[in-house]
Write a structure and sequence with these properties.
This protein has 257 residues and is an alpha/beta fold. The protein has a domain at 92-253: Vaccinia Virus protein VP39 (Rossmann fold, 3-Layer(aba) Sandwich), CATH 3.40.50. It has helices at residues 2-6, 8-14, 17-21, 24-40, 51-64, 70-81, 85-88, 94-107, 121-129, 143-155, 170-179, 197-207, 227-235; strands at 111-115, 135-139, 163-166, 186-191, 210-218, 239-245, 248-253. The protein has a seven-stranded mixed sheet, sandwiched between helices. Strand 1, helix 9 and strand 2 form a beta-alpha-beta unit. The longest helix is centred in the first third of the chain and has 17 residues, at 24-40. It is globular.
Amino acid sequence: MENTFTGFLPFLASNPSVIVTGALVPLAAGVAWVLFRYYNGPSYRHGSVGVKTQQALRRYVLFESTHGKPDSVLQAFKEYAIKDHAMKMLLFTVEKDHFLEVVAKQRYPRTTLVLGTQCGYSAIRLLQLLPPDGMLYAVEQDESMAESAEEMILVAGFKNNRFKLLCQHPVDAIRDLKSQFGVKKVDFVLMDQCDRYVEALLAMAEVGILHPGSLILANNTDHPTSEDFRTYIKGADGYRIVDACKGLLKMEYVPSE
């Protein structure tokens, strides 16, 4: 973004007639539109990566991992993330990864929902931990990211009968789980898209797919964009905070009778 805007100053200096003719108005409107798209578009969310990074990651995993081996694919993710900070932000740290494994094994969920699948790392990790008859529903609104995630999951060796990737708004996906896929309850939820946690919780309560004992992991709850979520949870009924690990919050659904 810096290169885009610093270029305007020399342009105006060399073209003073721009101000006189009133062309500055549409120019300012154009700048405003770029800013709006940058801050509100699909790529502006905590931990997101651009299309070029996604494509580079896909190439690296395809060439450097052993296909059909989840651990090898996850290792390729980590290797690539060493040289790409944006990619590194999408992956779980060693502590978070262990925390996720402990929680998943604790519940041994048959039906799992991932909101904010992003590059597919967490989906692959959870698929490793599900029972043989377990099903994972992965939601990712960004189309290019969803395509990358689905490819990575397949490269890791998981068949389509083990997971379903939904490229749509999280709230729409939650509603479709029951109406289109016949999901009556979800045992485990991983939320990795901190600007929509409250929306997701309200939608799951509305649809009724949570049941007493359902576990919910909310990632990056220590990030500034999750402030509304922290405020909501403090006063919300039906959720009990159980544990946390570096911003990865574990909650249990305990509806009042």
